[in-house]
Write the structure tokens for this entry.
Amino acid sequence: MTEESSISPTRNQENIIKAFIYAGDAYIRCIPGKSLFHSTMVHEVVNRGDIFALRVHDQMLTIVPGNAAVTHYEMIIYERGLEPKPEAVSPGMPSPLKKLSALAKLQSIKMEIVRKAGMVPL
């Protein structure tokens, strides 16, 4: 890892973790190492199609059913103290709060136009 990338982390393979949401909690999939397959329990879980997963908020290793409905996403990991400021994450882009505020303003303008025209809003 270069000195520059350790100072200002970028979105690359080194700091992106694929994760998923299951039952309202964030999980990271864990793949058992080759030596763990000597365990009957590990072998049975994998053969059933279930998934070993680490619950992020308390680091508990658990088993998630393989057919569970989950939402996949990516987590970007930063070293403590090196997190980018919100402005640095997406320069020139409005924050989510500003986007919501702008959408609310547009909606109110649309409703005012509909009222003045005597139309029925959808």
About this structure: The first strand starts at residue 16 and ends at 22. Confidence is low (pLDDT under 50) at residues 1-9. The radius of gyration is 23 Å. The chain has two domains: 3-84, 86-122.
